[in-house]
Amino acid sequence: MAGYIGRFAPSPTGPLHAGSLVAALASWLDARAHGGQWLVRIEDVDTPRCVPGADRVILQQLADCGLQPDAPPLWQSRRGAIYQRALDALIDAGLAYPCACTRRAIEAAWAARGIAWPRHAEVPYPGTCRSGLAGTAARAWRLRTDFLKQKPGYAGVKCALDAPISGVRDNPFDPSPPRIEGSTVHWHDRRLGAQSQDVEATVGDFVLRRADGLWAYQLAVVVDDALQGVSHVVRGEDLADNTPRQILLQRALALPTPRYLHTPLVRNAAGEKLSKQTHAPALDTRDPLAALNAAATALGLQPQPSHTPLSHALAAWTGEWQRATGVHHQRS
Question: pLDDT per residue over 116-139, tens digit each?
Fold first, then answer.
């Protein structure tokens, strides 16, 4: 791995809001503090939820705030063939299987065991189709989250992704690499500390390709992080529970695991996370320093005076980020 590579990966379901800018600024600052590269990836695989033109709005909002990527942005919607190669490799290795279950069928399977799940809860997949479809039509593809229990010496699939670091799981930036025991993933978050989750029990075999034919977020993000050489992921705390699934999938594909840092969430007056679902207003970049000051404050950084040039404010926050995180700036 040549050096630090970070990324900001928004979904174009609308323009950025104040919470989005916190994650964008944190990822940019972390990259600059390490003397590394900062990439932007448009995660538009969930096409029904994407708003036409939102990707251009997002890129302009970032530019208004002085957050320019170091390479042209990447759009996931153009990368289906690459995701298919990864899925094919998992299928060939016996780690992925077709599933015919609807949500109602999954809930019925748990009900048959005397277990009911709260409304809107994430219901773990009970493994119904692991042993076959019993004559029903396949709808989706899932990862067997118990693959390390079935194959304790499993070394990873041979996957023709053309990844520059394919087959290398060690991250030289990570002093405490993840550990997987069965289906339980233990990892260290740079802000949240030690984390663990039994993926099989908590989530179950998760979807890699959806019933509507679209690629699942988990597969797309793992493949693209590897192909782009991402060494550090800085993103919102609401995505922290995706991390164990992604680490397990990285292990299945013999791909490296980035270091993770999950940033604080920005909440509205009702205590809800700012999001499209809670009608968060679009980020106003007519005064970019004001927007950045709000994001910096959420990250525990000092706001800059209103007359400060944008470049000077960003440089000041980079230095403050280095001191707060103990980063030694060196370009590798």
Answer: 888 777 899 999 999 999 888 899
Owner of token pair 């909002």: 61
Q: Are 45 and 217 in contact (CB under 8 A)?
A: yes
pTM: 0.92
Contact between 196 and 131 (Cβ < 8 Å): no
Q: Pinpoint the alpha helices (H) of 97-229.
A: 103-112, 147-150, 199-202, 217-227
Q: Cβ distance 289 to 259 under 8 Å?
A: no
Phi, psi of 69 (to 5 degrees): -70, 155
Say if residues 24 and 8 touch (Cβ distance below 8 Å). Answer: yes
134 φ/ψ sector (left φ>0, alpha ψ -120 to 50, else beta): left
User: Pairing state of beta strands 184-189 and 179-181?
Assistant: antiparallel
Whether the per-residue pLDDT at 212 is higher than 50: the answer is yes
Position 170 scores a pLDDT of 62
